[in-house]
Amino acid sequence: MNLNIAVLAGDGIGPEVVEQAQKVSDAIAKKYGHTINWTPAITGAAAIDAVGEPYPDATHEICMNSDAVLFGAIGLPRFDNDPSNPVRPEQGLLAMRKKLGLYANIRPTLVFPSLLHKSPLRPELIENADFVCIRELTGGIYFGDKGRNEARDKAWDVCEYTKPEVERIIRLAYTYAMARKKKLTIVDKANVLETSRLWREVGQSLEKEYPEVKTEYLLVDAAAMRIIQWPEGFDVMVTENMFGDILTDEASVISGSMGLMPSASIGLHTSVFEPIHGSYPQATGLNIANPIGTVLSAAMMFEYAFKLMDEAQEIKDVVNKSLAEGIVTEDIAGKDKAYGTKEVGDWLAAQIV
Length: 353
Ligand code: IPM
Ligand code: MN
What we know:
Elements: E1 2-10, H1 14-32, E2 35-40, H2 44-51, H3 57-64, E3 68-73, H4 77-80, H5 89-99, E4 104-109, H6 123-126, E5 131-136, E6 146-148, E7 155-157, H7 163-179, E8 183-188, H8 194-207, E9 214-219, H9 220-229, E10 236-239, H10 241-255, E11 264-266, E12 272-273, H11 292-304, H12 309-324, H13 330-333, H14 341-351
Parallel strand pairs: 1-2, 1-3, 3-12, 5-10, 8-9, 8-10
Antiparallel strand pairs: 4-5, 4-11, 6-7, 11-12
Helix pairs in contact: 1-11, 1-14, 2-5, 7-8, 9-10, 11-12, 12-14
The protein binds 3-isopropylmalic acid and manganese (II) ion.
Manganese (II) ion (MN) is lined by residues 245, 249.
């Protein structure tokens, strides 16, 4: 099979971790007789510096013409530290999500048996945790009207959702729940927010179409608590854009490190596969960043974009092996020996023969 993949490495540690995922993907392609054509494209701060915008049209063209996009990370402190800057790298990520119509971000919470003892949570609390968060990705406060008054002493970000937007993401969540343990948790803040009341209303009308699925509604503050108190109580969780952003960072603690967590963003056009972590600028070029989140995002890419299940499984298997054998970066090594980003990537690729 010919796999045409756009590579948007982005900023900070993005290029380093993406390189490892490409290495592992190439090894898999070689073993299973596929040909990967990688097409690099610029985004984020790198694109602002080169052409003045974080998601140039040329990059969008490349994404639209590819079968999948492998994405690294976006963002640099020199932009964070200057709030008056009109162009920001993150706008590139948001523009990409919007223009590719990526309305759903699938974030599985993975528990690695060999890392149970590395989690700040007690092993018996998390060993049976296995849930997936479906985060709405192209609506809500991220994309609503935002601005300042003339005196610039008042600011606003509007949270908006339409019924069709809510319906398509909750329906998608139901299809995931049907394929899993048939439990869906709809997370909102319906005791305060009108948008949340719309979410709940839509949930209640769709519930009837999926009688086999046990649907529950949970307020986001309670959900935040329950994720660390009783994570095995969740199967599929669906929520709006910003709640999903926050809750999935929290949930990554279950697995032991945010550097391990992959995601798939799917929707109307080409799907994007990206780790949930950020650009970790302090680590840029130091060969210490954990490449596993991106490697597992590549596994999701084989599964979701190409339906190559064996290939995806083999990537997950070698990742588990590396964790079990302690071939890990410093974020999970603790007092044990830490390997470099590149060494972990090389080790993983070398296992695939
Ligand atoms: C994520 C990131 C992004 C988000 C940032 C970089 C804009 O935190 O993918 O979770 O908030 O969506
Ligand atoms: Mn985030």
